[in-house]
Amino acid sequence: MVSAEFSTVASDLLRWIPLIPLCATVLNLFWGRAWGNRTAGGLACAAVGASFAIALYLFWQLPANGVLRDPVYTWIESGLFKVNVAFQVDALTAAMLLIVTGIGFLIHIYSLGYMAHDEGFVRFFIYLNLFIFFMLLLVMADNLLLLFVGWEGVGLCSYLLIGFWYRDINNTIAGNKAFIVNRIGDFGFILGIFLLVTGLGRQGVWTLDFLELQKHTELLSPAMIGAITLLLFIGATGKSAQIPLFVWLPDAMAGPTPVSALIHAATMVTAGVYMTARLHFLFVLAPATLSLIAWIGAATAFFAATIALTQNDIKKVLAYSTISQLGYMFLAVGMAAFSAAIFHVFTHAFFKACLFLGSGSVIHALDGEQDMRKMGGLNSRMPTTYWTYLIATLAIAGAPFSAGFFSKDLILWEAFSRGAMILWGIGLITAGLTAFYMFRQLFMVFHGEFRGDDHAKAHLHESPAVMTFPLVILAIGSIFAGWVGAPEYLWGSRWEHWLQPMFGAVAAQESSVSTEVLVTVLTLAVVAVGFYWAYAKYGRAPAKGAPSAAEQGFLYRLSLNKYYIDEIYDYLIVRPFTGCSRFFAEFVDPRVIDGAVNGVAAIARGLSWVWCGLQTGNVQHYATGLLVGTLALLAYFLGQS
Amino acid sequence: MNAATVIFLILATLLVISSLMVVFLRRVVHCAMALVTALLLIAILFISLQAPMVGVLQVMVYAGAIMVLFLFVIMFLNPGVLEQPSVAWWGLAVVLSVLLGAFLVPLFSQYEPGDNPVTSTELFGSPDVLAKSLFGEFVLPFEIASVLLLVAIIGAVVLAKREHGSDGAA
Amino acid sequence: MVPLNYYLILSAIVFSIGVVGVLIRRNLIVVLMSIELMLNAVNLTFIAFARHLGSMAGQVAVFFVMAVAAAEAVIGLAIIISVFRQTRTLDPQNMQLLKW
Question: Residue C65: phi, psi to the nearest 5?
């Protein structure tokens, strides 16, 4: 419900936030190569920086309970149905804007160093800026259709950037996988949009604007709302890598590490969470869907965490970790705790980006090595990377007073206080698993003895400042970003307060401060267990590496092979589908369709063969034909008279 | 059955016989001769139909000039080999032509016998009257026909001219 | 007075005979002569009608038919000569270059 003192302020500044990166994209597209890496990269970073500055300015300008609006132009106008290209910034959008532009800016700077020796440098920044443009379109759209345009656009940029090193066909395949799996989700999304438009349209209201939709929810039947929200959520599972459409995210690690950090950790994958928060007024009216979302979120969080336990590729661990943390966000959405979900988006952006960029730093130092079994002992050789990585790991595990601590605990508390005990339990165990696999990674990469070859050892170096500077900023964020959302018994949540006018007051849960503290302590205990277990297996000298093939138990292998989910999908879905396609391509198309078309031609040719026989070249035969025709005419006229 | 009818029937029979000879005789020269006969018979029929001028023209132009031309060409080309007729083809052609006749005859039988002609003056069909029509009412076709004849002459000369290096007969 | 349809029937018979000649003879000159026969049959029809209707138009038409027939015979014979020079035969069955 929108509160009474809602205010709308018009501001022409809004359109520049997405437009500046778009201009940079176009400029670099035409002249980037001519200008050279320094100028092109600088332009790209400056563009995102400018957007960040404007976003920051707008953040201060934002009315306490209202929106900033910028109608740019009318896009579709068909009878009563009207869709504009128009931007809208409220508290939720402002939060997302700061994340996208702020973290985006840091990652752009990082990429200046990471991609410095890549021949596709300019192309990378073109794609990256284009992505920022679409993401901004997504979060600033004032209607569902424009949001979907941004949604599709980020999917496109994700595809382009995953398959960035296209000369290796595996990267292209990974890009295809991401796009196709997303598309399956988008199918649900589109159906949801259709259902929404027609559902309201039948009652005479033709609109997709969020503010308008919010006013007219009572026009839809509960069954309709349930169907719409379910379909929209299917889209979210695709984009935000939940069960069953998460399989693209681990493969997406084929892209350059800044891409993994920006797109597959901080921004694009959170679009699903943003969308549900944006449409919260619909989702709260569909308790069945919310319940489903919560269960899928929790299941995904647990499931992905169990896979991350055994992975040996540094980026794959982080990928599954991202899927797991996204599960937490959806768990919060399922509890209708939207501001908690967005809060976790916020903190997660900091520490996950820091982790990814740190891993990029390691990969860069080891000249492309990503297998953790060949790492170790890097803490002395790469101190900045080590310390920032340590801070981020503490944050994601939920160490006290780090950003992850506040956001994750809030989610667990929301689940507990609403009585969803099983979900809370799953979340709790997952927190322990998170601690385990993150510290396992930390120990394997940075502690103990270096397990790689001598050539790599000689090559080891700390990354240049252009790469370590963003790491430091993000690490600081990983600690302090969560402090805006502290629970009541500490110093209160400014975050909650800020987003409250949007989402409505959180239903006051009758519970004491002590219960809350108890839950927090329980969480910390589980985290500590996870930490200790990792330390025992991987941290203590002599550090044991990963178990060899003989030592691997059944569960270990199951986890290492990601429960064979790709193989299962391949068998159950991909193969029948390609079989069907092959049937159509090899049988129906050449034999039936081409056969019909060619058959028509063959019939025509056959008929003309018949008539060909008449063309003997003999004049007297032709004269006979004339005679026959004349006789026919005569017979006709004789018959008439 | 008066005398005119009898004479007509005799002429008609002879005409039909000579036509059949034109079509069915094997040597070309014989056919040409039969055709001359047929043309002369038709000229007689014209004269009996009060078209004396046209009848005389028929003899002069058709039997005289055109047939002479035919004979010239026959002698010029002198085809040696006699042609081999094909029975099936002959059968079909005869059948079709009989059909044609069978259609035309009843068509033409519709006219009532014994209608008196509208005018039957002595001058009808004479050179005077023919000339008056030709240079009066039909002067345009007359002029066009003369152009046509000119074109025909030029065409014939061009077509039949012997090419350099070609080995024409005679 | 011979009735009109006698002449018409005669003309039809001669015309049909001419058609037979055109279709079956394998000598181009005879084919041309059969065509002349057909034209003459038509001339007979014209003159018969001219007398029957009392109009000179029929006789004038015959005049023109004769002129055209002359021109046509001349051209036809010139073509026959030309063709004979190429193919050394007068058999239409041997001139089937326009076969499909």
Answer: -60, -40
